[in-house]
Write a structure and sequence with these properties.
heterohexamer; A alpha/beta (138); B alpha/beta (95); C alpha/beta (116); A: 138 residues; alpha/beta; Hypothetical Protein Ychn, Chain: A; 5 helices; 18% strand; globular; C: 116 residues; 5 strands; 27% helix
Chain lengths: 138, 95, 116, 116, 95, 138
């Protein structure tokens, strides 16, 4: 039955952790998708969602560390995690090369996340059979 | 399960303006999945307008908000079933 | 100074309510007069039996129940919002006072802070 | 694939609409079919004479007006929302198509993305 | 200017649930200041309910949104006047 | 006339820059308050507002750099700017001592902002005659 065939997903997260539930819902969805045999083409962080890729988040030890959980998931499943460069630069999320380019005092991008342009999102929409957005609630 | 034309995923509370917009956009053949704060619709009397549209609610979000019992009109689903819904639907809209 | 902290956002979907609770407890810890008002979708913080393990968040049920012990003066719930969300004495946390006209509470306090 | 980008939030108070415009132009730059729908408070992006220097933001009026040049297929405005916010042909940017039932647009596109 | 009991500062769009709550809380002697997205109320027909409550709107936010002309019921103010309003009011509530 | 007497303000910012308008409105208000002869007891960043104190923000050169504008204002007027530690740690905003304490790869707090507890907010509410909140709009 075609309706239940395996899909290739692009997930787009636009809500920040510890502000919205979006990264949490997206991770639980992503785990279930992989468990069902689907594939994830990529995960794209946009707008406030880029904060998920911070290497400096330090929530209380009895709360889930969403950035680390996401990073582990991406590594374990070899899924690319991409933070939009325009969203990231405004919000203070930078890698080593942006640090040098903008002469910033540090970098704070958590591996394996990378920073790239909106073209990565466009490619995701073209390459995958399903694009699911995880926005901030309210 | 029935084939789904468009799956509408709503994660906003019942008083959010996007909730009314979402309900207005539902068409026969569509399905509605309530996640996060949207599961609060389960507690609102008379919140379900159109019996022709199947309504699902994410069970982890419902029980987190003390709303574990499913009404007759709403089916509680886990993340695995949520994935199935998105795979079956021709289109998915996240409100 | 008497402070009213107002929480009008649903639990767990956003962090504002949680951080407004922290503000409340902080004022109480400094022996300042502080009360809580839950209104709009925020009344859902007061529902019994919040089981949050599957969304990997901490339930705030215990925090709210412990508020009087930590010196929070009163916990109010907007009566109309409770009706709207099907909340009554049977399914609400104990120790909550129903406010028939919660807007009056804003005028009875000298300092009001909304959650986010 | 045909994409509809939906902006339902007011201009300048939040960034979501601005970043949704960036998404729109990005799709157009990759020669993908993309249209814009302004609805709810989002129709206020379409008002003429936005003078933003005093709040130190860039006006988006020019960006929206230039959308067709950059390959954006159509710009729709929800007709009911325009009435609600007092928008008509006299005070709106040129090149906008009124959508009497904008919900239908969602069903006519294979991919819909909301601003935030 | 008249003395102000409570100054209500509203920065939410007219369709935000907190807008209705704010209007409901206005009492004689209070004043309402619209900032950011709340200035869109200037464009909504019949948006001003109670003529006994003075309504102000932040001019930089109004002109940014193409709403520079003040209605007869609303006074446009700059940041300096906003500061005065907060200094004159006995209490200030930010919605 | 007592109603127009000089006030001592505490400003609380809970909305993030490049996400909400809150830090912008707050800065224009703060400048006008100082110009009118009022004083600012302190500025407290809470919730998403802590992102205003990031040293890594790099908006496009034709957009206002709100973190830098705020930092300059605080220095010029000797106003303390305090980011709530609990909000900051969750959201990946840390100073040198938190960096060491939590073994994080970098720090990203912009001077003259400091990181401290909610007690700073409580003190502000007690020390000042007006507390004004700048929340995210919507």
């Amino acid at each position: 039955m075609a309706a239940t065939s395996l899909q290739n997903y692009t997930l787009v997260i636009t809500g920040a952790p510890y502000s919205s539930q979006a990264p949490q819902t997206a991770l639980l969805f992503a785990r279930a998708a992989i468990a069902a045999g689907h594939t994830l083409d990529r995960v794209f962080l946009y707008g406030d969602g880029v904060h998920l890729a911070s290497s400096l988040s330090a929530p209380p030890s009895d709360e889930t560390h969403w950035a680390k959980e996401w990073a582990r998931f991406l590594k374990d499943n070899a899924v690319p995690g991409v933070a939009c460069i325009a969203s990231a630069l405004r919000r203070g999320l930078v890698n080593e090369s942006e640090k040098k380019r903008y002469e910033l005092p540090a970098s704070n991008l958590l591996e394996p996340f990378i920073i790239a342009g909106l073209g990565e999102w466009v490619e995701g929409t073209m390459a995958s059979s399903r694009v699911i957005y995880f926005h901030a609630g309210g | 399960m029935m084939p789904i034309n468009t799956l509408h995923i709503l994660n906003k509370a019942p008083d959010h303006p996007r909730t009314a917009q979402c309900k207005h956009a539902l068409r026969p053949g569509d399905a509605l999945l309530l996640t996060e704060n949207a599961v609060l619709a389960l507690s609102v009397a008379g919140g379900h307008d159109d019996p022709a549209i199947p309504v699902y609610a994410l069970e982890p979000d419902a029980v987190a908000r003390g709303l574990g019992r499913s009404g007759t009109e709403t089916t509680l689903v886990d993340f695995s079933a949520m994935v199935n819904l998105t795979a079956q639907a021709q289109n998915v809209i996240s409100w | 100074m008497s402070t009213l902290i107002v929480i009008d956002q649903s639990p767990y979907g956003t962090w504002e309510g949680r951080e407004a609770l922290d503000m409340t407890f902080s004022l109480a810890a400094f022996d300042q007069s502080v009360s809580l008002l839950f209104t709009g979708a925020g009344v859902n913080w007061l529902r019994k039996a919040q089981t949050t393990s599957k969304i990997e968040q901490k339930s705030v049920e215990k925090n709210i129940s412990a508020a009087p012990i930590f010196g929070v003066k009163a916990i109010y719930a907007d009566a109309k919002a409770c009706v709207q969300y099907g909340l009554g004495l049977d399914n609400m946390l104990a120790g909550v006072a129903m406010a028939e006209n919660s807007a009056e509470l804003l005028h009875e306090h000298t300092h009001t802070a909304f959650a986010g």
